[in-house]
Structure formats: structure tokens, C-alpha cells
Write a structure and sequence with these properties.
single chain; 206 residues; eight-stranded mixed sheet; 8 strands; alpha+beta
Length: 206
């Protein structure tokens, strides 16, 4: 996928990508899925996380992170799902961001983190410590795989989907610099304001 430039397909051209629109995105997924569904799903999650990052990131964050994807061939992993989490009712997350000097400390365990073992960038959600509802608590950050306090638990063994490497990722008091928090000044709840129609269409195509 790197050799074909697919890892940067959904990044706008002015940022070094191909600038694929929704139709192209789904056609790529369709072709990948004909050959290997696990590859299609992996690419879908990477591309969705990349698009979400682009929607939430400020100019400085884009200049710092996007070259690692468009030029360096790195992948994003969607590190958002947790046991007991549901979008049907009130969103709740057990992973917490605790404010400290210069940023936050993140603790919690995520499941089904597609490409977690191979991605260099983790698109991660959690709640601000001591808050209870998504409206007042949900936060999003980009975290480097090699950060202290990050552990990959290789537990994924789903028949037909082993190639997605959707293992668990554990954050144990991992330091997240303030500049890695996405969403600008009003970062609380910023993720919930993004249209994710393309993600659902892509998931269906895969």
C-alpha cells in the first residue's frame, strides 16, 4: 500500500497526498476487498483516522504529523474502542486524560485497534478525568507508538481478519504533550462534531 501511495490517498494534494474524494475512496476499498478483505478494512481504518486527524488538527499539527504519513509511509491506528462502549446511548469511555504540567497523563485499555502493531501514530480518544459525559469530557489526541507508557497486547486472532492486527493497546500513565491534543481551543467534544458518513460507506464497501 505504501508503494502505491495508498497510505496518503485521502490527504489533500497540498499536504502531499492524492486528495481522493468519497467516490475514489470507496472504489479503492472495493478493489482491495476483492483480493483481501482484511487489507481493505485496515486501509479503511487508517484512512478514516487520517481524515479525522486532518479535520481536527491545527496547522502546526498538520505540518508536524502529515509528512510522516505522506512522505514517511506511516499509518494511523484507530485507538478509540473500549469494552462496554456504545454509541447507541450515552457515549462513555474509561480511558482518562489527567491534566499535568505541559499536557496530560493518559491511562486505559483500548480494543480492536486496527493496525495497532504496525502503525506509528495512534488516533486516541478518552475522557477528561473526573468528568462523566461526552459533552464535557471526550478528548482526542495523536500519540506516538513509541511513547513511554504504551503497551501493545497481541490478542487478536479473528479468523479471516488476522491481517488487521486489531490488538489491544494499553496506556499506563502515558504522557501526552498539550500540542498533541486535537480540536483546537475547544477540544472537548470536538470529535463529535465531525461528519463520518464516509467511514460508514467505506466500512460497508469493505
Amino acid at each position: 500500500m505504501r508503494d502505491a501511495g495508498l497510505n496518503a490517498a485521502c490527504i489533500p494534494k497540498e499536504w502531499g497526498g492524492a486528495g481522493a474524494n468519497s467516490l475514489t475512496y470507496n472504489l479503492i476499498l472495493l478493489e482491495l476487498g476483492k483480493v483481501r478483505p482484511s487489507t481493505a478494512l485496515s486501509w479503511n481504518m487508517h484512512s478514516t483516522s487520517t481524515s479525522l486527524f486532518f479535520a481536527l488538527a491545527n496547522e502546526g499539527q498538520k505540518k508536524r504529523i502529515l509528512p510522516r504519513v505522506a512522505g514517511g509511509g506511516e499509518y494511523f491506528s484507530s485507538v478509540t474502542a473500549e469494552r462496554g462502549m456504545s454509541f447507541r446511548h450515552l457515549v462513555t469511555l474509561k480511558s482518562t486524560f489527567t491534566p499535568v504540567d505541559g499536557g496530560f497523563r493518559l491511562s486505559g485499555e483500548k480494543i480492536s485497534t486496527t493496525l495497532g502493531e504496525y502503525a506509528g501514530l495512534f488516533f486516541t480518544t478518552g475522557f477528561l478525568a473526573e468528568k462523566k459525559t461526552a459533552a464535557e469530557a471526550i478528548m482526542t489526541a495523536v500519540i506516538d507508538k513509541n511513547s513511554d507508557g504504551v503497551e501493545i497486547k497481541r490478542v487478536w486472532d479473528a479468523m479471516g481478519m488476522r491481517g488487521t492486527a486489531s490488538d489491544n493497546i494499553v496506556y499506563e500513565d502515558a504522557f501526552v504533550p498539550r500540542e498533541n491534543i486535537l480540536g483546537g481551543e475547544n477540544f472537548i467534544g470536538a470529535t463529535g462534531k465531525i461528519d463520518i458518513t464516509m467511514f460508514h460507506l467505506g466500512f460497508s464497501a469493505a
